[in-house]
Amino acid sequence: MGLLLFGVAKDIAGQSILTLPEGITTVGELKSWLLATYPGLQQLNSLMIAVNREYAVDNQPIATSDEIAVIPPVSGG
Amino acid sequence: MDVLLKIEPEITIQEALDFIHSPACGGEVVFTGKVRNDTKGRAVTKLFYESYREMAISEMQKIADDVAMQWDIKKIAMLHAIGDKYPGDIAVVVAVSSIHRGIAFDACEYAIDTLKARVPIWKKEFFADGTII
Question: CATH for B2-127?
């Protein structure tokens, strides 16, 4: 279902949706790939991943059928 | 507990108040977050808010669920604006009603603090000097 990007993460990647790269099977692997592919993300205070609209921990498995989102530090209010 | 959640370009304090009114409730607490014209000494011309809407509504519902577990709140409204917002505009409204005032203050503070910490909404700040953060 693709990888959704929001806020400053979208600006750093230059895209609002990416394809989940092959071979990535956990949230932690995805974070490592994102930080290596888009080094600008390393400047953020936090980088969370949501899987199917829930905040996810690093060892959570992910698949292309999941709705995955890259969540930079939130700043509502 | 009755819950009103909304993420829309236009929100009003009145709709939150209208929702939380109840003849059973003697206490109503409303928090309004507004766009400031200054961030750390720099003039702000506007903010742009975006959300991950589906997840944001889901996280707001969790906050409402937490409120219902902790306090005897009768009604809660959480509204957040999106899009371009200018100094003086309303960015967020949290309103709660309960039989007495004490828990309404506590629940309202918990709800806005948690909203700001967890709900996937982002602002971009546009400054008078042309920079954007």
Answer: 3.90.1170.40
* Partner A contacted by B121 (CB < 8 A): yes
ipTM: 0.95
CA B96/CA B65 separation, integer angstroms: 13
Nearest chain A residue to B32 by CA distance is A77
How many domains is chain A built from?
Answer: 1
pLDDT per residue as tens digits for the range B21-65: 999 999 999 999 999 999 999 999 999 999 999 999 999 999 999
Distance CA B36, CA A37 (A): 36
**B122 to A6: CB separation less than 8 angstroms, yes or no:** yes
List the beta bridge partners of residue A68: A3, A51
- Best interface-test mutation with B: which of A1, A4, A5, A6 has the largest number of B CBs within 10 A? A6
